[in-house]
Amino acid sequence: AGQGFLLQNPQERSCWWPQCQAGGPGWLLGCCECLRCCGRREPRPRTVWLGHPEKREQRYPRNVINNQKYNFFTFLPGVLFNQFKYFFNLYFLLLACSQFVVEMRLGALYTYWVPLGFVLAVTVIREAAEEIRCYMRDKEVNSQIYSKLTARGGLRFCTNQRVPADMIFLRTSEKNGSCFLRTDQLDGETDWKLRLPVSCTQRLPTASDLLQIRSYVYAEEPNIDIHNFVGTFTREDSDPPVNESLSIENTLWASTVIASGTVVGVVLYTGRELRSVMNTSNPRSKIGLFDLEVNCLTKILFGALVVVSLVMVALQHFAGRWYLQIIRFLLLFSNIIPISLRVNLDMGKIVYSWVIRRDSKIPGTVVRSSTIPEQLGRISYLLTDKTGTLTQNEMVFKRLHLGTVAYGLDSMDEVQSHIFSIYTQQAQEPPAVKGLSVATKVRRTMSSRVHEAVKAIALCHNVTPVYESNGVTDQAEAERHYEDSCRVYQASSPDEVALVQWTESVGLTLVGRDQSSVQLRSPGGHILNFTILQIFPFTYESKRMGIIVRDESTGEITFYMKGADVVMAGIVQYNDWLEEECGNMAREGLRVLVVAKKSLTEEQYQDFEARYVQAKLSVHDRSLKVATVIESLEMEMELLCLTGVEDQLQTDVRPTLETLRNAGIKVWMLTGDKLETATCTAKNAHLVTRTQDIHIFRLVTNRGEAHLELNAFRRKHDCALVISGDSLEVCLKYYEYEFMELACQCPAVVCCRCAPTQKAQIVRLLQERTGKLTCAVGDDNSLEGKQASLAADFSITQFKHLGRLLMVHGRNSYKRSAALSQFVIHRSLCISTMQAVFSSVFYFASVPLYQGFLIIGYSTIYTMFPVFSLVLDKDVKSEVAMLYPELYKDLLKGRPLSYKTFLIWVLISIYQGSIIMYGALLLFESEFVHIVAISFTSLILTELLMVALTIQTWHWLMIVAELLSLSCYIASLVFLHEFIDVYFIATLSFLWKVTVITLVSCLPLYVLKYLRRRFSPPSYSKLTS
């Protein structure tokens, strides 16, 4: 979680208290005299005077973070309210309170209040620990110190410092006039973002001069869009006044981290008006399918409780004050509903989460949602992104295509020779050379085409070369001499770094860049200087980026552009090879970019610049006006080349996908890449097996086409589906049910050209249509920056770890919780059955069989440790679970916890409770206290033996738990003389009676278990030998 700042945990609620500061925008700190001034108002645009906070027009929220759910006064009421708003907790509270009424009292008050208090205490301690953790994290963030230029405002940050508020970038110490941000804690993207200061303030001699000028920032009202910003910067004391447009490139949003240099900024938004806060909703606590199933079983038990109570009163013919008798029986049989069930399961989840984090074979795994580890054991559909999830997001340049000729890795030396020959001839030949041979002209033509393509790739990007000390050469000297060994490339995209590294390998090296210029080095060591006139950054909407540069040596102005083929096809001049070659390269699994250029005259550029500046200064519809002006240039551009880079598969993706497939999990790949690229990756990763057919869903645009294509798809069986985002949208619009029904039958589905909103829609539809559990997997650079990983339930460092997380930890968590819940229910039903038998024998009297500490000790120190030790049980070793993923498939049907298994445990409980109670009644001699001694001791021993019968793989802590519980019971007999005859339990008569009753209650179950394993063994038992 990095700094632990504004990362949304599904179990945490992030909020910012609506406090305010006098400083607000324009500076950072200060305070207002009262909190009333910052009541929630409609967000409004604002004018922030630089260094003059007294000129602000309104109060703004205080800039502090508070991720706590409660404060000192609301903690206890809030926790108790959250517990008692659930029916069963409220039910136990009402039972305990009823003991204050004399007519309803069945025993000592602590009999009911101590168990309830224990459950509440565990919950309060857990919540308090979480609150303290949140408080310490908040305190650490809120106590960070930032440097202010003066008492009047302006903040300075250094490398690796977190930005504390939404700001406008004014100055940087970097010589290139820009800085990089790490935004992974804001938008989930690992790529660095380039940010540019306001050019007017960057030109000032020193940072302190910022407060000597008369200037202000006009900013739009606060909103949730972290990818766009509209504002203007105005300096009034210059002649003429300076107006500059501000966009997303000039912003420093809160939750980002400065990656390079020292920056100075002015605060615009604070507190609840921050972009990061406005994008943070109060996440709902996730309730797993397992918890819902347990709640359903508990409701059945409640129904049984009511029925048994009514039967008891009915057998008394509703005599006397029968309604009081019903209440007394409800109290008497209240153990049917185990109060300790919820706390046992919650503690089990904590253990499972701890085991996952401690697993050395999946290092770095983070469990953010500790309430749903059992869900991992029942996943039916896995939806995964491609880039950065199945692939490494580390690009390798593979192909340069010029239309008539293509260069692969094995022919890059030819590209290098072309580049070398161009610069060698430029240096040696006179300006005009006549009488060249045809062969030489062809050679020159090909060399110039290669050169233009390579130069375009070397110039059209947002990569900045940075020089670092390598121990031999210091930073300043390395930067001055462009030392290759000290140079690293900083960029917001790994694609761009791969392209620039490739141009370096063929002889044209990017050696320098700042806000206004680019320096390339030719193969001969000559420095080529270019002035940057305009940059049009890449966006996910435009799918392209452009740059206008002036060659300092010739004065030529050139507009270079690169982008996805779908948008570039309409921009470049007509050609007959672009579409075909893009498809060919995509089928090889390459990510394709189209590179083009357009030469501009000085007059054309000046006309464009005037219109562009005017559009950028617009406050209303700025993005539309700017796009219109840029599009006027994007016509009839000369197609230079296609580039192909490969995003290599992550380690062990193929065996992991095969494991998931064998486990019965259907994998869907959702990606924004081309259809051909996505299909190739699916085959390469073995998402689609070699024997499977692939049905490529034809592009459809209307209802009729969708109907015909769905009918064609319906006739195919056991084939993978590949569909584009556009076709998917049409199908979901007209034939949502039919499409989802067919898609769910496919062994694998690939959705390409898929928008982030469509990915979320598919997840939702799968959950609604199938009712099965889905797991969405994406890297922190996927989903195009739309809060991709901030609310993840589990975070893993590599895709291959997913196999172990599901096959081992998910399977174990589900099976353990199933066993634990059923055993806790069995423990409660046993003692309730004994109470029912006892009451029936003694004329349906509402008299408790066990009172005081006996009833409390039974569900706590006497049986709690052995029962809870079931969270350490496992049926097979982790290596076997990984080797045979088919074992996971058994869990998808929910067999470990079903109505069938529940009924079996109910019958076992009724049998054992009846045997113990009737046995004690038959074998006791004279005193009632002997019944209590015989039955209670037999009950404790039966529970301990039943745990031993249930355990499949013994752990040393299980043995300790069994011995500890037995020792606690034997030791406590000394203090239980009020309920048990201490002298009687020391006799031989007591020992043989308890032994007989315990054997009769347990031995048949041991025999049945042996016969079942002998003649109908479960699938896992065949692998344990």
From TrEMBL:
The chain crosses the membrane at residues 109-129, 292-316, 322-341, 824-844, 850-872, 902-922, 928-949, 956-976, 982-1008. This is Phospholipid-transporting ATPase. The active site is at D385 (4-aspartylphosphate intermediate). Keywords: ATP-binding, Golgi apparatus, Lipid transport, Magnesium, Membrane, Metal-binding, Nucleotide-binding, Translocase, Transmembrane, Transmembrane helix, Transport. It comes from Catharus ustulatus. Its cofactor is Mg(2+). InterPro entries: ATPase_P-typ_cyto_dom_N, ATPase_P-typ_P_site, ATPase_P-typ_TM_dom_sf, ATPase_P-typ_transduc_dom_A_sf, HAD-like_sf, HAD_sf, P-type_ATPase_IV, P-type_ATPase_N. Pfam families: PhoLip_ATPase_C (PF16212), PhoLip_ATPase_N (PF16209). The keyword Magnesium applies. One of its GO terms (cellular component) is endosome. Mg(2+) binds at D385, T387, D779. It catalyses: ATP + H2O + phospholipidSide 1 = ADP + phosphate + phospholipidSide 2. SUPFAM superfamilies: Calcium ATPase, transduction domain A, Calcium ATPase, transmembrane domain M, HAD-like, Metal cation-transporting ATPase, ATP-binding domain N. It is a multi-pass membrane protein. CDD domains: P-type_ATPase_APLT_Neo1-like. Coiled coil: none annotated. ATP binds at D385, K386, T387, E496, F538, K562, R591, T671, G672, D673, R753, K759. It comes from the Eukaryota. The keyword Cell cycle does not apply. GO terms for molecular function: ATP binding; ATP hydrolysis activity; ATPase-coupled intramembrane lipid transporter activity; magnesium ion binding. It is found in: Golgi apparatus, trans-Golgi network membrane; Membrane. Belongs to the cation transport ATPase (P-type) (TC 3.A.3) family. Type IV subfamily. One of its GO terms (biological process) is endocytosis. Its EC number is 7.6.2.1. Residues 52-112 form the P-type ATPase N-terminal domain.
